[in-house]
Amino acid sequence: MKQNLLMIIMIVMIMPGIALAQGTNVNYTDGATKLTGYFVKAKTSGAAKAPGVVVLHQWMGLTAHEKTSATKLAALGYHALAADVYGTGMTPKDMKEAGEKAGYYKTNFEVYQSRIKAAIAELIKQGADPARIAVIGYCFGGTGAIEAARAGMPVKGVVSFHGGLGKAETRPNIPITTKVLVLHGADDPYESEAEIKKFQQEMREGKADWQMVYFANAVHAFTQVEAGNDNSKGAAYNEKAARRSWEYMNLFLAEVFAK
Fold it and tell me: Residue 72 phi/psi, 5° resolution?
């Protein structure tokens, strides 16, 4: 089983064009905002509804990275929606604009939470079991996954890949009922030790069922091949961390979706 999983992952990473052809663009809305996500149907022959996973994008918007993740999740038996947070046609043109957009949603967290709720609703509309939904995210999307837990959304679990963990000091720590998995680069320069400790305290005070896994020699964006391989830049791909973090997520989803 483990060898088959690794083979699926390697095929998808090497030939993303083939993998991406399995999904379809879906249009949905959050209030007056038009959104365009990427849905991939679970590869399962079972009669029961498949669990669903929302994939939240990093600060550059919905890219092949998130679509590939959705395809890999579908191969594991989950309906998957690579969600759109920014809006149809609102992809940032550069990192400056991406920073501004991501900063807006981090500050206006209620709007971010609303975007995630809209994605969950669309995933269920596409056939996912409403009683078995999870949210995962990368970088900025990892922040969103944590926000889904903070909002008490009806999801079984959330997974943050190299995501931002902090929140405004004015926001109180509240009970966290959703299971939480944080996959973090041990050398990530964008998350201070103080912020990490505050997050961990938030989880403790919220009586959360949480895990935080560190990956050696990994910085920010360690799952993203397009980040390059230069750790000195603070964001870089790490094949070992990417592979291991995916396996941790796979085990986590199997557990939270178990009936």
Answer: -65, -40
Query: What is the spatial order of strands in the sheet that 179-185 belongs to?
Result: 24-30, 33-40, 79-82, 52-56, 133-138, 157-161, 179-185, 210-215
Reply yes or no on whether the pLDDT at 21 is more than 70.
Answer: no
Q: Assess contact for 71 and 20: CB atoms under 8 A.
A: yes
Q: Which domains, ranges and CATH numbers included, belong to the chain?
A: 25-257 (3.40.50.1820)
DSSP string, 107-155: HSHHHHHHHHHHHHHHHHHTT--TTSEEEEEETHHHHHHHHHHHTT-S-
DSSP result, 42-72:
-----SSPPPEEEEE--TT-S-HHHHHHHHH
Residue 192: left (phi > 0), alpha (psi -120 to 50), or beta? Answer: beta
Q: With bands split at pLDDT 50, 70 and 90, how would you rate the model's confidence at 1?
A: very low
| pLDDT tens string 83-118 | 999 999 999 999 999 999 999 999 999 999 999 999
Q: Which residues contact 197 (CB under 8 A, 6 or more apart)?
A: none
Q: Supply the DSSP symbol for 41.
A: -
| Measured CA angle at 3 (ends 11, 50), to 5 deg | 75
Tens-digit pLDDT profile for residues 142-165: 999 999 999 999 999 999 999 999
pLDDT bin (cut points 50, 70, 90) of residue 181 is very high
> Closest Cα to residue 78, out of 37, 123, 40, 42?
42
In sequence order, which residues have a C-beta less than 8 Å from that of residue 47 and are 6 or more positions away? none
- Segment (H or E) for 220: none
The model's pTM is 0.91
